[in-house]
Amino acid sequence: MLSTRFTEAFGIEHPIVQGGMMWVGRAELAAAVSEAGGLGMITALTQPTPADLVQEIERARSLTDKPFGVNLTILPSINPPPYDEYRRAIVDAGVTIVETAGSSPEPHMEMFRDHGIKVIHKCTSVRHALKAERVGVTAVSIDGFECAGHPGEDDVPGLVLIPATADRLSIPFIASGGFGDGRGLAAALVLGADGINMGSRFMCTVESPVAQAVKERIVEATELDTNLIFRSLRNTARVAKNAVSDEVVEILANGGEFADVRELVAGARGRTVFEQGDLDAGIWTVGLVQGLIHDIPTVDELVRRIVEEAERVLQVKTLLTV
User: Does the keyword Oxidoreductase apply (predicted)?
Assistant: First the structure.
């Protein structure tokens, strides 16, 4: 058993966390990860209203009695959702673990702390991790440049970012971006992390609530099949390479502004990809780790083999150093 500061702090068996993913982090996936011994996450803003979020939390509880959390990502938006209402719904539903991402968690910490909620803050740099530690989070999820979604603007990959974080952070932290097998988990632990966070790998499982065509595309794709969009806008996002993201890259490279691509990157179009399997309906997020994904297992099978492989790798490392 790979016991770490993170597993002890959050009461889970394995140091593996399912990242909060828009349109993907639903009850069935979160519960499956928790049942397998990891930490599943429901994505709050996937639910159209705070009341719907409460129902989704209850649905997860009907599927597992093990710990799971809720992701609350706070990003700049033309029409921002009612974040305070979602936060209140999380508290009122009795959730005990929250993953925050995007903006600083500081405005939310008092309420979460007052209700005994442990916070994991996802960030992309050591400086942001240290700030999260100062405002009182229980743990940090440090996100390397390999990740899906928003990798920040520093472009620091995990091989450097993880040990750099370990050198300066006192609280437990997990590594995000590029993880999909036991070798990655073993590497993260050796580099100083207390576990790993996986998004794309869990998206490509039987229990993942996305269209089969999306999962099959991830299996077919390589580490070369992503695009970085919004680079010129200083809001970089890593997404799947398709006709839409190619067009967005071209428009912005030729001097376009956000207004010129707004309709192309609309969230509703990305949701269509996941729900209907039309891979060119919009942009959708996936990480470089898709180059290491070759099948669509159940969550339980995936977690079990990752842990077993990590234990084998770490045992070999130990024998080599004796």
Answer: yes
